[in-house]
What we know:
about 45% helix; seven-stranded mixed beta sheet; flat; six-stranded mixed beta sheet; 16 helices; alpha/beta
Amino acid sequence: MSELLARGDTIAAIATAVVPQQGSVGIVRVSGDRAQSIARRLFRAPGRQVWESHRILYGTVRHPETQAVIDEALLLLMLAPRSFTREDVVEFHCHGGIMAVQQVLQLCLENGARLAQPGEFTLRAFLNGRIDLTQAESISDLVGAKSVAAAASALAGLQGKLATPIRALRAQCLDILAEIEARVDFEEDLPPLDEGSIGLEIEQLLDDIDRLEATASRGELLRTGLKVAIVGRPNVGKSSLLNAWSQSDRAIVTDLPGTTRDVVESQLVVGGIPVQVLDTAGIRETFDRVEQLGVDRSKAAAQQADLVLFVVDAQTGWTDDDAEIYEQVRHRSIIAIVNKVDVTPSVPDIPLSEPLVLTAAAKNQGIDDLEKAILDRVRAHHVRAANLDFTINQRQAAALTRAKFSLQQVRQTIEDDLPLDFWTIDLRGAIQALGEITGEEITESVLDRIFSRFCIGK
């Protein structure tokens, strides 16, 4: 992909979501040497408006040959290097919808631009030194954020809060490498190497990497969310629980067992974590073919969920059917829920060791206790404390793991009293791995893999 930048192409793409009859503004973005000339060819600004950087012009987009008006629009001109890509950038701010932005984009392509590839604007910003690789990935995370917490984490990365400690680690490794190589090349002219001090520095580097790695689980949760399946016998109140939790009538609720025939989904946010809640059909033996399909899907949803909410009816208490269903999900992470506690004088004994929550879904009672139990479960199984406001992704975590392994090898080399040349081999490995995180050392195949996940206009 970076070869495209070397050719000096001018790229164009629609930079906003295109939805019929929705959105008041649609933006077509153009970046490259020919961006300004394309804008002057297509845009007519009446009066004495000045064409200068970072000024908004009002006018019309016209076909350059027929002079037919395509749209009434605003034009934003941002000249290099004061732009996102550090190239000349123009943006046509058109009316929203489909037709206007598509026609303006087509005119740009007919007059010297080519269609941008996914993430190519951000790629150019990275290759031109406008942002580092952690900031580029944070842009993608910010666009796709599903909660306020996920957006805040992405914004912290965009502000360089991840890149700063990574660069500090790499700089410290480079300093250690320089000190060792100096002893290799000029041993007779320098005092002996303080191996104890080097060993302490290596230990501190490993501690710092552990602290950064501890954000990976939370980052994965914020990006992908938690999949939660509500399971249990028919008519125990699963659908009522979903409706009370989501504060909507997503699921049909009746007194008839087997009302829910398919998996009903709702998207929630609990403690800053996106949660996909699946209300499943009541699991039981049935001769109804349609209901049986729902039961089969319920079992599949339970097997794929990160967390199972196992619902028991407080009126009937623990039954053989409950025990049979529990055997099918017991290997999953489970929170037991005793529902309908408002209509029974006492809570039945539930022979489970899992956390227990009491609810009265029909009266919206117990939802706060349920969310607290979910967050406690998440903290216990998925998240290690890191006390940092940013998180790392899988690619960054893998690079940190390689850096950590290399530094552990350096530590072992010191303990084995091997020659200094051996120290430098693994130190270089750590330096390279840390450089891959920020993009100071990166391959084109990795760039392609990262930016191909971006949308076209980003």
